[in-house]
Amino acid sequence: MASKGQKFNKYTNYIIVEVLKELQTGKSSLQISRERNIPAKTIRTWKRKMILHPELNMGIKRGRPKESNLTKEDWKERYEILKKYQAFLKAQREKK
Questions:
Q1: How many domains does the chain have?
Q2: Overall pTM surpassing 0.85 (yes/no)
Q3: pLDDT digits (tens, 9 = 90+) for 76-96
Q4: How do residues 17-57 score in pLDDT, each as one tens digit?
Q5: Cβ partners under 8 Å of residue 43, min gap 6
Q6: What is the mean pLDDT of residues 9-22?
Q7: Cα separation of 63 and 55, whole Å?
Q8: Cα(44)–Cα(65) distance, rounded to whole angstroms?
Q9: Cβ–Cβ < 8 Å for 22, 32
Q10: 3-state secondary structure string, the chain?
Q11: Is 60:17 a contact under the CB 8 Å cutoff?
């Protein structure tokens, strides 16, 4: 559990990918930990995530994808769909 005021290290995607590549060459997480001054448990966590989600292993992206290329009409269309869905849900509740 984190203690109050504790600082966490943030690693770039480049470093994470490099460490994962080193793991695939046969180095242990402890060796890499000593070389790069990264906690071994962090490296093992990255390895576990790579095994559980192989589609994410080399193209690690964080956060929600941005949808900045949507036009005003796209937003209006989404808003209208939401309004219709809310009306549908309201009608469903009134049925019961």
A1: 1
A2: no
A3: 999 999 999 999 999 999 987
A4: 888 888 888 888 899 999 999 999 999 988 888 877 766 65
A5: 19, 23, 29, 32, 33
A6: 86
A7: 16
A8: 26
A9: yes
A10: CCCCCCCCCCCCHHHHHHHHHHHHCCCCHHHHHHHHCCCHHHHHHHHHHHHHCHHHCCCCCCCCCCCCCCCHHHHHHHHHHHHHHHHHHHHHHHHC
A11: yes
54 found inside a domain: yes
The two structure tokens encoding residue 66: 């941005």
Q: What domain range includes position 18?
A: 13-61+69-95
Q: How far is CA 6 from CA 1, 2, 40, 53, in A?
A: 10, 6, 19, 29
Report how far residue 13's alpha carbon sits from residue 31's, in angstroms, rounded to the nearest whole number. 20
- C-alpha–C-alpha distance, residues 23 and 21, integer Å: 5
Q: 1 in a domain, yes or no?
A: no
Any domain includes 26: yes
Residue for token pair 């209208």: 80
